[in-house]
Design brief:
The protein is an alpha+beta fold. It contains 14 helices and seven strands.
């Protein structure tokens, strides 16, 4: 096989890889495929113009310029290609800076070669050969260092790049050596007799490595995308499960709160409470009509609040305190000096929230389970601390056990509501003379 035939075969193979890469560039729209296309295009132009039949149509100056400058243009593209493929700026900053410096040197070199080849100054073949040789030796040195540094990186991509660059380096060195030694094979017409053939072998092996590494990179990207998609799908499923669980908890909370609120309504609307309230109202109408009018207003406020807050999970402390004022007025009218309510509330917590009717249940429990009389008044105190907790305490003066059966449903329902809301649990305790319940206010 003659070198001309081999060159045609070689350029055909390069063209096939080039067309394949152009298709991939159109599909993936990544800059690295564009750089790889330019890199192959530079070699394709270079070796196409080195065919003897074409040399007859190319002037000597142009031929010398192609021989010296086009490979350097390919190296310029290679520097950017390697940087994008391996992220040299991040992983090998010193080599990246050397590549940037080499770009500047190549720019001056191409400028000097252009001045000589296009006879801006008189043609000097010795100067041309000297510049060409020095530049090739500089590229060999940079390639040796680059292959060594890239080959030490972890991962398949750097190893493929180092291997391909090694093939190019070996082919270039063998080509330079056979040219300098004037190697004469047994068959001078064989393509193996041409020093440029070994450079072609190196380039072909390099392009095969680069094509493989781009395919590997694309497959790895597809696998990563699939993994990410699976992870996102799992996260979506997890969020959906959490949403369903939250909806179930909310539904359970609403059912629980409806039951608690219904219990409170039933407690307040039971005939005994209603009879006592109406009896107190009857006494006031005849003797103190002004107080009777206010009693009716407070009584309507109590029942209005009870009915209105059935559909709410939370209410403000300010609303609860206003409701307790109305409720306490009813109790005060009935028990007189037998009951006393004091409030020590920091105003910064008035807009904090708690489940509705919580205070009513606690005040009602205090009245229900303790002696209430003028001789032994029941004292109830509402207060807040600096941590945003509300404390409801009352003097401990229990009624006889056989008169009141405590089921503690009120306290258990309050604890259940806080648990369903995901809040800290209220605390219940007592001392020798006081019963104390502390509730976290919800900000």
């Amino acid at each position: 096989m003659t070198f001309a035939t081999w060159n045609l075969l070689f350029t055909g193979m390069i063209s096939s890889i080039l067309l394949l890469n152009v298709v991939q560039w159109g599909i993936y729209r990544e800059r690295i495929y564009g750089l790889y296309t330019l890199y192959m295009l530079a070699w394709l132009i270079y070796f196409s113009l080195r065919i003897d039949e074409i040399n007859t149509y190319v002037s000597g100056g142009v031929w010398y310029w192609v021989k010296a400058a086009v490979p350097m243009l390919a190296y310029l593209v290679y520097f950017d290609f390697a940087n994008w493929l391996i992220r040299l700026r991040e992983r090998l900053p010193l080599l990246f800076r050397l590549f940037q410096l080499a770009k500047v040197v190549i720019g001056f070199y191409i400028g000097g070669i252009s001045v000589l080849c296009f006879e801006i100054i008189p043609w000097n073949e010795a100067m041309y050969n000297t510049l060409h040789t020095l530049m090739r030796l500089l590229m060999v040195g940079l390639a040796l260092y680059g292959v060594w540094k890239i080959g030490r990186l972890n991962g398949m991509v750097p190893r493929y790049v180092a291997l391909g660059s090694s093939f190019l380096l070996i082919g270039g060195v063998v080509s330079m050596a056979t040219t300098g030694l004037n190697f004469t094979p047994q068959n001078p017409h064989s393509f193996l007799a041409a020093p440029l053939t070994y450079f072609m072998f190196g380039i072909m092996a390099e392009l095969i490595c680069f094509t493989l590494v781009l395919g590997y990179r694309q497959r790895r990207g597809a696998i990563k995308s699939a993994i990410v998609e699976q992870k996102l799908a799992r996260e979506r499923e997890q969020r959906q499960r959490e949403q369903v669980e939250a909806e179930l908890i909310t539904e359970k909370l609403q059912q629980q709160m409806s039951a608690v609120q219904m219990m409170a309504l039933q407690t307040q609307l039971n005939p005994h409470f209603l009879f006592n309230s109406l009896n107190s109202l009857s006494s006031l109408i005849a003797d103190e009509p002004t107080k009777a009018e206010r009693f009716v207003d407070e009584m309507s406020s109590v029942y209005r609040y009870l009915l209105r807050n059935n559909d709410y999970e939370l209410t403000t402390l300010q609303s609860e305190l206003a409701f307790i004022d109305s409720y306490y007025h009813l109790l005060k009218t009935r028990y007189g000096q037998g009951i006393d309510l004091t409030k020590t509330i920091d105003t910064q917590f008035l807009l904090y929230k708690l489940p509705p009717l919580t205070l009513q249940l606690l005040v009602e429990n205090a009245v229900k389970h303790n002696v209430v009389s003028a001789e032994q008044p029941l004292r109830i105190q509402l207060s807040t601390n600096e941590n945003g907790w509300l404390t409801v305490s009352n003097t401990l003066q229990r009624r006889p056990a056989n008169r009141v059966n405590s089921t503690q449903k009120g306290l258990l329902n309050i604890l259940s509501k806080y648990q369903l809301l995901g809040q800290a649990a209220p605390t219940v305790g007592e001392t020798a003379d006081a019963f104390i319940v502390s509730l976290p206010l919800i900000h």
